[in-house]
Structure formats: C-alpha cells, structure tokens
Amino acid sequence: MTQHHQDNQPVDGNQADGRGKKPRHKKFQNQSFGERMAAEAQAEAAAAPAGEVRNDAARGERRGGPTQYSDRGSRTTDDRRDNRPVKGYRAERANEPRTDRRPVNRDDRPQYNRDDRPQYNRDERPQYGDRTRTDRGERTQYGDRPQYNRGERPQYNRDERPQYNRDERPQYNRDDRPQYRRDDRPQFNRDDRPQFNRDDRARTGDRPRFERTDDRARDDRARDDRPSYRRDDRPQYDRSDRSSYRRDDKPVRERAPYQENKRDEQPEDLGNVAPDNQFAALGIAPRLVQRMARDGITAPFPIQAATIPDALAGKDVLGRGQTGSGKTLGFGLPTLMRLASGRTESRRPRGMILVPTRELAMQVHDALEPLAHVMNVSLKLIAGGLPYPKQIEALRRGVDLLIATPGRLIDLCEQGAADLGAVEIAVLDEADHMCDMGFMPAVTTLLDMTPPEGQRLLFSATLDNDVDTIVKTYLKDPVTHSTESGQATVTTMEHHLLVIEPAHKQSLTAELASRDGRTIVFVRTKLGADRVATQLRDRGVMAAALHGGLTQGARNRTLDQFKDGSVPVLVATDVAARGIHVDDVGLVVQADPPAEHKDYLHRAGRTARAGGKGAVVTLLLPHQRRGMIRMAESAGVEAEPVRVRPGDNLMTELTGGTKPSGYPVKLPAPKPQRFGKGGGGKRYGSSRPGRGHDGRGSSGPRRSSGPRRTDSNRYEGGKSYQR
DNA sequence: AAAAAAT
C-alpha cells in the first residue's frame, strides 16, 4: 500500500528510487509546516496547563525511572522535538508514579522498537498512530500521512486513471493510425483507392444488380446502413459501451414509421413488364413484378412457380429444390407480399427468415432488399459478427422482416431487443442444415418463440430424417413441392472421381485450381483450408481460404475477392458448401471427399448454377475410394473412380491445360482500410472481435496464410489419410 | 466427424 502510493506521487528530484522518506518529510513540511506550527503552538497553550518545562535533564529527573526505560522513551520523543510539552496519554503517564509506568514501558517500548518502526515503514502507520506512543508532534505527522494516503490517494487513483485512459487511448490511436497510414497510404493511394472505387461499385452492382437503378431516393440511401454503420460503429466499438444504444432515450434517426409510407399512392404502372409475365400470373404484386422485370427476372423457376401460390395462400410450404434453383425468391416473394400489409410494432418483427450461415444471410438480404423496398417492407440482417447497435436499433424502430442466423437472433431475444411473438411468417432456408445436431436446438428455440398459428415455409435442398422432426412439429398440413432433382443441374454438371496417390495430392490440387475461371476447393477442416490455400499460392495459384475460423471481416473480404475475380480460387470448408452463390464457378474440387452424400450435393451445387456448366472433381486417396462410391450412389451421381497421375490427359482436359506457374503469389492487398478496421467495405460490418487483435490480424496481407510452411509436407504425406 | 452459429 504505502509503496504503491509512493510510486504514484509526483516524483521530485530527491526521490529517485521512491523509497526515501526525506522527500515525503520535505513535502509535508513544505505544505503544512507553517500551519502545523501555528496549530501546535495553540494546542500547546491550551492543553498544557501545567506548563511543564521540558528538557532532557528535567524529564530525566521528573520521571526518575531507570535510564534504560525513561531514556529510551525520551529519546524517541523529546530528543527529536526539543522542548515540546508532553500531552495526552503521555502527559498523564508522565504524572503517574514511576511504578505504574514501568510495566507499561516494559511491554510497549520493546514492541515499539521491534515492531512498530518496521511496521511503520511498511504498512502499519495506523497501528503506530493508534498506540499513541509518540508525543503529539510525531503523532500529527504520522497521523497526517495515513489520512492523506487514505483520503487523497485513492481519490487520486479513481480520478486519474479514467482520465488517463481517456486521454491516453485516443492519443494512442491518433499516434498509431497516422503511423499506419503513413506506411500504407502511399501504397494505397496509387493502387488501391482507384481499385477500391471500382471494386466497390462493381460489388454493389454485383450482388443486387437492381440497386443501381433503385428508385430509392439518394438521401434514403445515404441514410442506409453503409455510412451510418461506419459512423456509428467506430465510436461504439471504441467505447465498448453498449448501454448507449440500449437506452431507450437515445435519439433515433428521424424516420417515418414504416407503415405510414404511402404504400397505396405508388403508381401501379407496370412499365415495360410484359403482359404475360408469369410472376404476375402467380399472384405477385405488380410492383414486385415490375421491379424484378427491371432486373430481367420475368420467368419463375419451377420451385417458385410451385411454391408461390400456396405460400401466398397462407399455407405451410415444404419446398425442396437444388441450390441455385431460386428458392430465395420462392420464399422471399410470398413473405414480402404478406408483410406488405399490416403494422409492425417496435421490437416485434412479423417475418423471420432463418439461414445457417452469415454469408447466406447476407446473400438473402441482398437479394430481397430491393424487392422489399418497393413493397415498403423493412428488413434487417441479424447475424453474428456484425455490430449489435444497428441491429438493436433497427429492431426497436420496428422492422418487418428479419433475415437472421440463429445464434445472434436468440441472443437479441434474450436481451429483449427482439420479440418473436408477432411473427406471422417464419422461413427456414437450408432446413436440412438447420436441422443438424448443432443447429437444431437453436432453431427450435426460435420457432418456439413464434406464434404457432403463423405461417411457416421450409426450404431445403434435401429433405430427410432430421427435417422431418421440424416439419412434424412446426408445420401444419404442409404442402410439399419438390422440383425434380433430375433437372438442369445434373445434365450440365460433370462428375469425376479421381483416385490419386497421396504424394500427388498437392500438385494435382494445384493443377486443377490453376485453370481459368473460378474454382472452389473444398477441404475438410479449417486448418486444411488455410494450409491448402497457402500451398496453392506457393505454387503460383492465387487462392484464399474461407472458413468459420476467420473474422467476419476476413470472410467478407475473401468472398468479395473471389466474386470480383481478384482471387479466382476459393479454398473453403463446408461453410461455403451451402447456398453461397457466386456466378461462373466452373469447377468444384473436393480435395477432401465430403463426409456424406448430402455434402457432396451441396458442394457440387456451387457450380453449374443457373443453367451454367460445371464440373465436380473429387480427389480420392485409395482408401477413400470405396466410401466415395457408396456416397456417389446415395447422391445419385454416376461416376466411376479413375486413377489419375499428374499430367494425365484427363487432367489436361479438366484444367484446359493451364499449369501452375510454380512461383509463389501473394494475396491481393486488402481493400483500403476505412477507419483502420475490417477493410472489407461490406456494408454489413467488418469484424468479429474475437480472434486476437483484429486490426493487425485482418489487415496484413498474410491474413489467411494461416498454417505454416512447416505443415505443408503433411498434406502430401501420410497425414492425408484421414479415415 | 467437422463445421456452423453469440460474445
């Protein structure tokens, strides 16, 4: 304690090691010497009626005790303080008979000498003062310090440290960021800012093409997530103070209530929509039809044609369709139609779309957003890895439709930020995945929170055992629609099962991935994704890893780079197996065979989308051959395992003859960092604060090169035998 | 068995 306080004192020159008492004495004397002297003089006059004269000789005589005691006593007091009167306890004792004083002295003085001084030096000032061994002058001195220590220094600590933190951190950030920018800006200014602008526009155009022609007013867009996300997020992130947005009295952006928009005043002019538009025939609102027609969506996919009428009729629908078959619109349009009328209360959304991964949530959100807009339906992406504030605020403002991953939505419900009691229509996308063991509890939890009489739509590429449980529990008289699995996908998709030698796995993977066009390489584990991506880059193939162990910012960035073509090869775990839609993925390489036939179908579904062509190549180690054959049968895939070595004709055929350069490549530089974080430029948010120091980890170009070179031999060696 | 999903 004592030492601690000492350390916090202002240091003056004499106190080099902080231990010496002299500076402290000096300090006290400097501060209060005059006062203390005056006070003592007064006290002396008042409290020393006897007016005893004190000097050594007189005291010795008066006490008359044996020198060993009396002298010690007097030494500790009067020798230091010449001619001070003895008062209080000592004064009484001074007048007592000598015999009375002796036992006291025998007990106390040795204790004083042995114990007190050391104790005083360390921590024991209160005891020292309590015993009142000393005379008044010494007591006041020592009494002062504890008081000072107790009262002043704690206060000093409380006040100072917060102040220190507030001042210091901004200073740190200010110092740090300029340094960071100084290094990076020259690089970014030349290369990345132009790239960034181009990329950004390309991206926004990419996902929802319609946004460009969106009829939403500019200022509406300005009020949209992107700018305000950045403005809001950074302060909140820095403060790490959630109370600010939890508070209800926090000013909300001015915005008319959603339901008061002039929904009925919008022109019903269908513009260039053909009179025989099939969506209109299905009962889709003219505004939606028009909006989709603007994007060239005029003919419903089979799954849409099958499910939309029933869904519009309010029935529970069980939809089965291959990924890429248009399920999103299949449930999205009826959902929007339903939510277009009615009123949403604060925190009580009326629609909920559950999806298994964040990427999928973003994708669905982007696909539905322009359509929701023309219907004046508000929607909000509720997913992990994104900042809470905007999600909570949107809920409080009242949002019609949530597109959510289960974890975050449950979290928000537990916080009281969301109440699913008003959900009229609940959608489960990728239901078979949502019914996996790990997801099941979350899904049932959420569905349990919705009113049982609400409409439920369940969409999935595969409908099997697990889904049944959900269907039986939560769907009433569901209408099942299966678009035939045998449609477009199979005819435009080739399947190859390559039996390879373990030592060739790495080079064959690189050979396959070095082809022109986008390629997804699936691996079994996160670590494997990092490792294979690194190996591919080492061999000259621009590849990036995507898996759930990356920060959300890294995930977004990697996906963006894959979409914009700067990274043509994505090495992914099964996080990307389902639902992720990227155009023109011409080849899916399964560097590790899937665990089960469903996974095979999902992975394969990443290619040959929307009627395009695609190939699925599965690399099999000899011992994986039999299992894969069984799996292919279950999946309805007709393919014979073929032994392949590097350079074989089949390889050339699959890759178009391109070979990896053999020269290591580096990932493209991250997008320019806005406000120093995340960097993705994706509107949803950029990071999940969980994996180490985010700023550092997600900004460097070595970002996804995860596993170390030393691991690379394991990929080709025996380590590949996983089953 | 892995991965995903909340901090």
From TrEMBL:
Bias regions of kind Low complexity — which residues?
A: 39-52
One GO cellular component term = cytosol
Q: Which UniProt keywords apply?
A: ATP-binding, Helicase, Hydrolase, Nucleotide-binding
Signal sequence residues: none
Bias kind Basic and acidic residues: ranges: 53-64, 72-142, 150-265, 708-717
| Region feature Disordered, mapped onto this chain | 1-274, 637-723
- Select a single GO molecular function from the record's annotations and give it: hydrolase activity
Give the Helicase C-terminal domain ranges: 492-650
Span(s) of short sequence motif Q motif:
277-305
Entries under PROSITE patterns matching the protein: HELICASE_ATP_BIND_1, HELICASE_CTER, Q_MOTIF
Task: Give every DEAD-box RNA helicase Q domain span.
Answer: 277-305
InterPro entries named among the record's database cross-references:
DEAD/DEAH_box_helicase_dom, DEAD/DEAH_RhlB, DEAD_box_RNA_helicase, Helicase_ATP-bd, Helicase_C-like, P-loop_NTPase, RNA_helicase_DEAD_Q_motif
Domain annotation Helicase ATP-binding: ranges: 308-481
Pfam hit, one: DEAD
Domain of life, source organism? Bacteria
Annotated transmembrane regions: none
Member of which family? Belongs to the DEAD box helicase family.
Official protein name in the record: Superfamily II DNA/RNA helicase
Q: Which organism is it from?
A: Kribbella steppae
